[in-house]
Specification:
Elements lengths: L8 E4 L5 H11 L3 E6 L12 E2 L2 E2 H6 L3 E6 L4 H12 L3 E4 L5 H5 L3 H7 L4 E6 L14 H7 L20 H24 L4 E5 H6 L3 H10 L16 E5 L4 E5 L3 H11 L14 H6 L1 H12 L4 H11 L3 E3 L3 H6 L1 H5 L3 E6 L3 E6 L23 H7 L4 H9 L3 E2 L6
Parallel strand pairs: 1-2, 1-6, 2-5, 6-7, 7-8
Antiparallel strand pairs: 3-4, 5-14, 9-10, 10-11, 12-13
Helix pairs in contact: 1-7, 10-13
């Protein structure tokens, strides 16, 4: 059974994180992804750590892709892009707004050679509006989307989410936009242009905060690990670390109090009678709970939470996450062979399925590894490819023996 996007061709002009994440998932779904890089290469190829001079971070993010390296500013380079686009179903780019038009490879230009193309643009703030020409990175979008002001601990400085949240949000948002447009094309026969931004994609994930603001004028502020609507629903200190507890519902609260911390008299405390009251008195509740939880290690409390049917778990460092037997069982750490790095680990597939849906088929490409192959598929002769390399229009790399 073929993968769902097998036979679909994607021309990926993106760089760094948001776009490459999106195209990686398209590749996992079976698409043929042709990553078109500048002669300098995707800037994440320079990211440390490196193994045998290849970036490990780049290799994790760019599996299931081919790489060609082209100077798009050169007329012969632009011609290659147009020829590629003519045979592709999807084109993606994340240049600063206006750049692709200047290069002559914007949607209107590519639609001339491929009327049914699906063309996706990603940017910091979108293609229109007062900030439409403004460049943007994940950290800028986290600040301007309000996310930094609601992350961290009360009274502290604004805090960045520990991962590139807006970048990944933009990649995921673009992904469902592309898949939706592709389904639309299958049904109605027309391609289209779609675009999103780091700012909007991050804002789209602030559902509860949006509702609270327009429902009651609430401004979301930093709450540490607490939830704004539920208690106890946070991480609590233990003898050797932290344990998370989600026991805000009345049934779970009763189980937590009677079976986990074994403090049944808390059920009679009017401050904790209902969830809204527990949220209001979260400081007092936290102090009481931590008087108990700090007497035993995290593993003790996880065992008791599980036995009582109350959701909870340890707060891991990342190495502990990767070594967890459940994570290992779910194959979220996957072994793959890279042509230069050698045996390496890559992130596993987060969606499991009964049929063929996603698959890690090949490692990330070397810079320009598939230039000659792709150009030959476009009709270029070996001599013409050699001339393009000699003229500095393209870069071609070979996999070492």
């Amino acid at each position: 059974m073929p993968l769902p996007l097998e036979g679909i061709r994607v021309l990926d002009l993106t760089n760094v994180m948001a776009g490459p994440y999106c195209s990686m998932v398209l590749g996992d779904l079976g698409a043929e992804v042709i990553k078109l890089e500048s002669l300098e290469g995707d800037s994440t190829r320079n990211f440390e750590p490196k193994v045998n001079d290849e970036s490990y971070c780049f290799a994790v993010l760019n599996r299931n892709k081919k790489s060609i390296s082209v100077d798009m500013k050169a007329p012969a380079g632009k011609e290659i892009v147009l020829k590629l686009a003519a045979g592709c179903d999807i084109v993606m780019e994340n240049f600063r707004p206006g750049v692709v038009k200047k290069l002559g490879i914007d949607y209107e230009a590519l639609k001339q050679v491929n009327p049914g193309i699906i063309y996706a643009s990603m940017s910091g703030f979108g293609q229109t509006g007062p900030y439409g020409r403004k460049g943007g990175f994940d950290i800028i979008a986290q600040g301007m989307s309000g996310i930094m002001m609601m992350t961290g601990h009360p009274g502290g400085r604004p805090a960045k989410v520990g991962i590139a949240m807006n970048d990944i949000a933009c990649g995921v948002t673009t992904l469902y936009g592309i898949l939706g447009a592709f389904i639309g094309k299958l049904r109605h026969g027309q391609g289209q242009y779609i675009e999103t931004s780091l700012l909007e994609a991050g804002m789209a994930w602030s559902i509860w905060e949006f509702g609270a603001y327009f429902g009651n004028g609430e401004l979301p502020t930093a709450t540490g690990t607490r939830h704004r609507r539920s208690a106890p629903y946070q991480a609590f200190r233990t003898k050797d670390g932290y344990v998370t507890v989600g026991a805000s519902g009345d049934k779970l609260w009763r189980a937590f109090v009677t079976q986990v911390v074994e403090q049944p008299h808390w059920l009679e405390d009017p401050r904790f009678e209902r969830n809204p009251l527990r949220v209001k008195n979260a400081d007092a509740l936290e102090a009481l709970i931590e008087e108990v939880t700090t007497t035993q290690p995290t593993a003790h409390w996880v065992e008791k939470l599980d036995a009582a049917g109350v959701p909870g778990g340890p707060v891991y460092t990342y190495d502990q996450t990767l070594a967890d037997p459940h994570v290992q069982h779910r194959r979220m750490v996957y072994d793959i062979e890279h042509p230069v790095i050698g045996p390496m680990k890559t992130l596993g597939l987060p969606v499991k399925s009964t049929g063929e849906l996603t698959q890690i088929r090949k490692p990330a490409p070397l810079h320009g590894q598939h230039t000659a192959e792709v150009l030959r598929d476009l009709g270029y002769t070996q001599a013409q490819v050699g001339a393009l390399v000699a003229d500095g229009v393209v870069r071609a790399a070979e996999v070492p023996a």
